[in-house]
Amino acid sequence: NAGVTQTPKFRVLKTGQSMTLLCAQDMNHEYMYWYRQDPGMGLRLIHYSVGEGTTAKGEVPDGYNVSRLKKQNFLLGLESAAPSQTSVYFCASSYSNGPYEQYFGPGTRLTVT
Amino acid sequence: QQPVQSPQAVILREGEDAVINCSSSKALYSVHWYRQKHGEAPVFLMILLKGGEQKGHEKISASFNEKKQQSSLYLTASQLSYSGTYFCGTDSYGGATNKLIFGTGTLLAVQP
After folding, report:
1. Which residues from B are below 8 Å from A when comparing CB atoms?
2. Beta strands of A52-107 (E only): which ranges?
3. Rounded Cα distance, B16 and B27, in Å
4. pLDDT, tens digit (0-9, with 9 covering 90-100), for A61-96
5. C-alpha B66, offset from chain centre
6. Which of A70, A96, B42, B87 could form a disulfide with A30 if both were Cys (CB 3.0 to 4.6 A apart)?
């Protein structure tokens, strides 16, 4: 089992460009999450999903959109990247009807210039 | 509101003990603890629930004071492998979404 995988691992964008980050899990988890991690700020929840076809906002959703068309995939989109979105992005997944541990992917380091 | 962790950083010698605290202004259903090594993903340590139940993979002890909305992680006889940043994640929603609000972390450095 690969667990939680994220693509790409690194990306550099120019201000105003768009991109999509892909998260995939092979553990049949219902719940999936997107976090961003900035120095001194810890992990902050961007969006999350409690099942295929459902998404909800987290603490810092502005500037991001998400989709969960398939149970195993959770996509995070940046429509018009800004330097403030420079961060490390982590995806996580968990079983439902918790609480359960969250399994994290390896992260994507995004730089917006 | 993010939970508050203390201390922000601590340096230990191998074999010494440390306590990391996590405090929330909201009523808590559960508290989760994770450890993250530099450049890696966070890794689950344990969950503490209201009522005293605990779930965890490692031989790490922790406490959860529901009335004070506080949790503490106890690292005893520290090893070099304990080094990393420790995060608490709090759930005030009853576990329905497993949604967590994480603290800003406590950096632990264990030296030989």
Report:
1. 2, 29-30, 32, 40-44, 47, 49, 55, 87, 89, 91, 95-105
2. 54-57, 65-67, 73-78, 87-94, 103-104
3. 32
4. 999 999 999 999 999 999 999 999 999 999 999 998
5. 15
6. A96
In this prediction, residue A18 carries a pLDDT of 97
Shortest distance, CA B74 to any CA of chain A (angstroms) = 19
Chain B: closest CA distance from residue A81 (Å) = 23
Determine the residue type at B84. Answer: G
Alpha carbon distance A92, A32 (integer Å): 6
- pLDDT score of A92: 97
| Backbone angles phi and psi of B81, in degrees to 5 | -70, -10
What is the percent of chain B where pLDDT is above 70?
A: 96
